[in-house]
Write a structure and sequence with these properties.
- The protein is α+β, with helices and mostly antiparallel strands.
- The protein folds into three domains: 2-408, no CATH class; 437-535, Transcription Regulator spoIIAA, CATH 3.30.750.24; 550-744, no CATH class.
- A hairpin with an 8-residue loop joins strand 8 and strand 9.
Length: 745
């Protein structure tokens, strides 16, 4: 425990405010620019799909970046328009009109602000993941059903998702060849680019590539701005702001539209106010929570402050004719992957948006709607892809059932009704599975404390309707204690509750405490997933866990080197805090633990399950890593990875790479980064560099005086690869320690 506390002291959390701007200017500026490239086409496409002026999406990003970022309670989330709000915005415009919808957004923003001041942010965790994912999948279907027509160059006539899907054959029959070529090529780029092996190409936003290589060139080649008799949409092929944006200040002023409050008390307005306020709040808070997990510095956002800040931003957006904003998942995760340190990255993303509107707005007239529709089709596909169904099913059959019911209810009604149906169905299903009515909203437990040990015995079922009581109890415990959480008498623990318990286990451990979870051995899991629903069945016989063939092979290897093999899932992932920038570690298993003696370094290989990005569009996979701790010498923090062309380009704009003039081959193949260049050069001796040139398939990170060694392979290693990884780690460390002995002599 003392060693871990020392590790935490080493990690420097970036400063906030003006000091943070100065300290992290280069990182945040670069991240802000990359997010701007991603956000620009999305903002335009979301606005177009919502029947708002295209520039409305850009205005939202400007407000969210340059204003809301300065008062929000989160550190690295990006505020802007989101695809998840298209269906509400479009329905509101169709029923109320554009200006009256702006009034709805103003009032909904005010309701959000009140939510924040009433400290209701914590209730976002009330909504189970299966319900939220079902809602997002339904939004994906809604986006797909409408935007596929625009890819084909056809304006659809239907309104509901089902009718829009039925209309697709008619649109295919009457498609416009030129815009269809643009749309199909755009889709090919969007689907293929993320799967290319070249890391430099994969890191360039696909939406930017399609605009540069497809949309702009083909729009000029086909002369789509010239009306032809077969052009079904005429000028609607292009983003057509209500007014031309030519120069400041006239361009910004002409883009502004004011709300019409004349129908704000009508039932239609009230309906959309409730929908905007609830859905925006839920999506924003869930995103903030997800991004906190990805934050390498493990900073905690103030959910209530973020809620009222977004609410104020939405009030302003409604007053100037912009779309509502949320904390957006895709751009926020891209922000982290780009190296953002503070809220200033969000500010710069908004600043670049403003610069675009002022100086490059004429380009808006040359972006075909088909290209923007393709971006939204791809977004909708990711929200509702087969992988989402598969991931939900892996957590349990009952989670998939709740997911599907929520999705269908949303598609056939609206977002608000769909979420309500999903929640009611989940409660009904849990009652059928044996949860008692009297424990549905009440948690019963006993708590005992003796010295540094606190024992909590849960006496009732734990479900999403009462888990907030357990969370409040756990998070109010004093830090640095040994917590024994006895779940033997909790006869039913649903997926949401398992997730909250494991989150506490990780967080409390990261603060220097110890969490011991007892009693799960007597439960039956609804699925192999470690966060699946657990239930105690009467007369259930607990069977001894058997190893699969791969685990048996790993166990034999561990025994051959005198190591210990542990197959069980563990959640002590605080040990990896600061590593694997932009990835969320879920759990680890199949550990091989080797240590020559109590004073020597400890080697642990483990199968790490992780996700990259934020839910529900995150990429999830497993890989094998070697973690080396208890190293006797002081090591500088560094990161060593393969260098691609994009990394070489970044060196010209301030991204450092430590090169060695005597070893040009090594310097051209590897990107070596770290804060203390002199100490890093001491570590990377000629012997170590020559060793790495011969063994160039591993990535290495050093944080808190610990080493993490892995490959870019997105699947667990076989036994031979694990053995090679062990040997590489031992030789790597031997060379470093030999360097220390030389310096002592």
């Amino acid at each position: 425990m003392e060693n871990f506390k020392a590790m935490k002291r080493i990690q420097k959390v970036p400063a906030d405010g003006f000091k943070g701007l100065v300290e992290n200017f280069t990182n945040d500026l670069n991240a802000g620019f990359l997010v701007f490239l991603i956000a620009l086409p999305l903002s335009l496409g979301i606005a177009q799909a919502s029947s708002f002026p295209a520039v409305a999406g850009v205005l939202t990003a400007i407000v969210g970046g340059m204003l809301v970022s300065l008062i929000s309670g989160s550190h690295i989330t990006i505020k802007g328009p989101a695809a998840g709000l298209i269906s509400i915005a479009l329905a509101s415009v169709m029923e109320l009109g554009y200006e009256k919808t702006l009034a709805v957004i103003v009032v909904a923003g005010g309701v959000q602000t009140i939510f924040g001041f009433l400290r209701l942010g914590r209730f976002a965790e009330f909504f189970p993941a299966s319900v939220v994912h079902g809602m997002m999948a339904a939004i994906g279907v809604m986006i797909l059903s409408k935007q596929i027509h625009y890819v084909l160059g056809i304006a659809p006539h239907s309104k509901t998702p089902i009718e829009l899907l039925k209309e697709i054959p008619e649109s295919i029959e009457n498609l416009n060849p030129q815009t269809t070529i643009i749309g199909i090529l755009s889709l090919i780029i969007l689907f293929i680019l993320p799967n290319l092996k070249n890391s430099a190409i994969r890191r360039v936003p696909a939406s930017l590539i399609l605009l540069v290589l497809v949309a702009f060139p083909l729009s000029f080649y086909f002369e789509l701005d010239v009306a032809h008799e077969y052009v079904f949409l005429g000028k609607k092929y292009f983003i057509d702001p209500h007014n031309d944006l030519v120069e400041l200040p006239d361009n910004l002023l002409s883009a502004i539209h004011f709300p019409d409050f004349s129908a704000i008390t009508s039932w239609a307005s009230i309906k959309y106010i409730i929908m905007f306020a609830l859905i925006v709040s839920i999506e924003s808070l869930l995103t903030v929570k997800a991004i906190d997990f990805l934050d390498p510095y493990k900073r905690e956002s103030n959910a209530d402050r973020d809620l009222w800040a977004v609410g104020l931003g939405n009030m302003l957006c409604g007053f100037i004719g912009a779309l509502p904003m949320i904390s957006e998942v895709v751009r926020s995760s891209a922000n982290i992957n780009a190296g953002a340190k503070t809220r200033w990255a969000n500010f710069f993303h908004g600043l670049f948006m403003l610069i675009f509107v002022v100086f490059l707005a004429d380009l808006l007239h040359h972006i075909p709607i088909a290209a923007l529709a393709a971006i939204l089709v791809y977004t909708g596909y990711r929200l509702t892809s087969f992988k989402e169904f598969k991931h939900i099913y892996e957590t349990g059959w009952e989670q998939l059932l709740i997911f599907v019911v929520t999705m269908l209810a949303t598609i056939f009604s609206n977002l608000l009704a769909g979420v309500f149906v999903g929640l009611v169905f989940k409660i009904f299903l849990e009652l059928l599975l044996g949860v008692s009515w009297k424990n549905l909203f009440k948690l019963r437990y006993n708590i005992h404390q003796q010295d540094d040990k606190i024992r909590i015995e849960v006496l009732s079922e734990i479900v999403f309707t009462n888990v907030l009581q357990l969370k409040k109890l756990l998070y109010n415990l004093p830090k640095g204690k040994i917590i024994e959480l006895d779940l033997q008498k909790a006869t039913f623990i649903d997926h949401s509750s398992m997730d909250k318990i494991r989150q506490f286990e990780r967080k409390y451990g990261s603060q220097g405490g110890v969490v011991e979870i007892e009693g799960l051995f007597s439960h039956v899991a609804f699925a192999p997933h470690p966060l699946a629903t657990h239930k105690i069945f009467p007369n259930h016989v607990v069977l001894e866990k058997t190893l699969n063939e791969r685990q048996k092979a790993l166990q034999e290897f561990a025994q051959s080197i005198g190591a210990t093999f542990k197959p069980d899932n563990v959640f002590d992932l605080y040990r990896y805090d600061g590593f694997l920038f932009g990835k969320r570690l879920l759990y680890r298993c199949n550990r091989i633990i080797w240590q020559e003696n109590p004073e020597s370094p400890k080697f642990i290989t483990a199968e790490i399950h992780l996700s990259q990005g934020a839910q529900p569009t995150s990429k999830r996979y497993a890989t094998t890593m070697l973690f080396i701790s208890q190293i006797s010498m002081e090591l500088p923090e560094f990161e060593l990875k393969k260098e691609d062309q994009l990394d070489k380009l970044k060196q010209y704009i301030g991204i450092d790479d430590i090169d060695f003039s005597d070893y040009p081959n090594f310097s051209s193949r590897y990107l070596l980064k770290g804060n203390d260049e002199n100490k890093i050069r001491e570590i990377f001796s000629p012997e170590l560099i020559e060793f790495l040139e011969k063994n160039d398939k591993y990535l290495i990170e050093c944080k808190h005086n610990n080493l993490l060694i892995y490959t870019d392979k997105e699947s667990p290693m076989n036994v031979n690869e694990v053995q090679e990884l062990f040997e590489f780690g031992k030789q790597f460390l031997t060379i470093i320690l030999a360097k220390k002995l030389e310096s002592v002599v």
